[in-house]
C-alpha cells in the first residue's frame, strides 16, 4: 500500500490559495483516476485507488496545515505503510511558480506542514513533491502570502500540471529515481 497526501487547509476561505497547492494537484489527479475523496478517516478526506495491482490511499488532511503530521501518521500506523511509500505534495516558496522538485527525503525548511509530518513520523525519509509558488513581495508577511489566492497564470497552472504528472508516474509504478530525473530538470 502507498500513501499520497496533498497538503492544504480545509474550508472555502482557503480554496485556491498558495498553501493549498497540494490539494490543487490532487484535484487535477482526480480527473485522471476518478478520485472522489468521499471517505473520511485518519483526520482526512480520502479516496482509495487500486491500480495495476497496487493499492493507494490519496488523502487531503482535515487538520489544517500545521497539524498535517497527525493525519499522515494515522494513515501510516493504521495501514502499516512503509515511509518509502509515502508521497507528500506541498507548496514551496523557494521554487518559482511553474517549477517542481521531487525529493526522496530532506528537511522541512520553513514549511510548517512538513515540520509537523517529520515531528509525527520522527523521520525525514518520505517522498516530497514540492510545487513552486514563489516568494512573497518584499513587505508582505509570509503567512499572508501563502494564504492569499493563487495567481493562476499559465506558468502556475503548468507547475500544478507537472506535479500531477509526477504523481501519476508514481501511481503508474515508475521509480522515484526515474521520476526525479524526468521532472527535476
Walk me through the structure.
This protein has 185 residues and is of the alpha/beta class. The chain has a single domain (2-183), classed as 3-Layer(aba) Sandwich (Rossmann fold). The protein is built from six helices and seven strands, in the order E-H-E-E-E-H-E-E-H-E-H-H-H. It has helices at 21-33, 68-79, 112-121, 142-146, 154-171, 176-183, and strands at residues 2-6, 39-41, 44-51, 54-61, 86-92, 100-103, 127-132. A seven-stranded mixed beta sheet has the order 2-3-4-1-5-7-6, with helices on both faces. A hairpin with a 2-residue loop joins strand 3 and strand 4 (54-61). Helix 1 packs across helix 5, helix 2 (68-79) runs parallel beside helix 3 and helix 5 (154-171) runs antiparallel to helix 6. The longest helix is centred in the C-terminal third of the chain and has 18 residues, at 154-171.
Q: What are the main properties of this structure?
A:
globular; single chain; Rossmann fold; alpha/beta; 185 residues
CATH class: Alpha Beta
Q: Assembly type of the shown chains?
A: single chain
Tell me about the largest β-sheet: 7 strands, mixed
* First-to-last CA distance: 29 Å
What is the helix tally? 6
DSSP strand (E) fraction? 15-25%
Strand order of the largest sheet: 2-3-4-1-5-7-6
Helix content: 25-40%
Number of strands: 7
CATH superfamily: Peptidyl-tRNA hydrolase
Write the H/E string, N to C.
EHEEEHEEHEHHH
Indicate the mean pLDDT. Answer: 91
CATH architecture: 3-Layer(aba) Sandwich
Topology:
Elements: E1 2-6, H1 21-33, E2 39-41, E3 44-51, E4 54-61, H2 68-79, E5 86-92, E6 100-103, H3 112-121, E7 127-132, H4 142-146, H5 154-171, H6 176-183
Parallel strand pairs: 1-4, 1-5, 5-7
Antiparallel strand pairs: 2-3, 3-4, 6-7
Helix pairs in contact: 1-5, 2-3, 5-6
Amino acid at each position: 500500500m502507498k500513501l499520497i497526501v496533498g497538503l492544504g487547509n480545509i474550508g472555502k476561505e482557503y480554496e485556491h490559495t498558495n498553501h493549498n497547492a497540494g490539494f490543487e494537484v490532487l484535484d487535477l489527479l482526480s480527473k485522471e483516476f476518478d478520485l472522489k475523496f468521499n471517505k473520511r478517516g485518519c483526520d482526512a478526506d480520502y479516496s482509495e485507488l487500486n491500480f495495476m495491482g497496487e493499492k493507494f490511499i490519496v488523502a487531503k488532511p482535515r487538520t489544517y496545515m500545521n497539524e498535517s503530521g497527525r493525519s499522515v501518521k494515522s494513515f501510516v500506523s493504521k495501514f502499516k505503510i512503509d515511509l518509502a511509500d509515502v508521497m507528500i505534495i506541498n507548496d514551496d516558496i523557494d521554487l518559482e511558480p511553474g517549477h517542481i522538485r521531487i525529493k526522496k527525503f530532506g528537511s522541512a525548511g520553513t514549511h510548517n506542514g512538513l515540520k509537523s509530518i517529520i515531528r509525527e513520523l520522527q523521520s525525514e525519509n518520505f517522498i516530497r513533491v514540492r510545487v513552486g509558488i514563489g516568494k512573497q513581495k518584499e513587505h508582505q508577511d509570509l503567512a499572508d502570502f501563502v494564504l492569499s489566492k493563487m495567481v493562476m497564470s499559465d506558468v502556475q497552472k503548468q507547475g500544478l500540471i507537472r506535479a500531477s504528472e509526477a504523481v501519476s508516474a508514481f501511481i503508474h509504478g515508475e521509480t522515484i529515481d526515474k521520476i526525479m530525473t524526468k521532472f527535476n530538470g
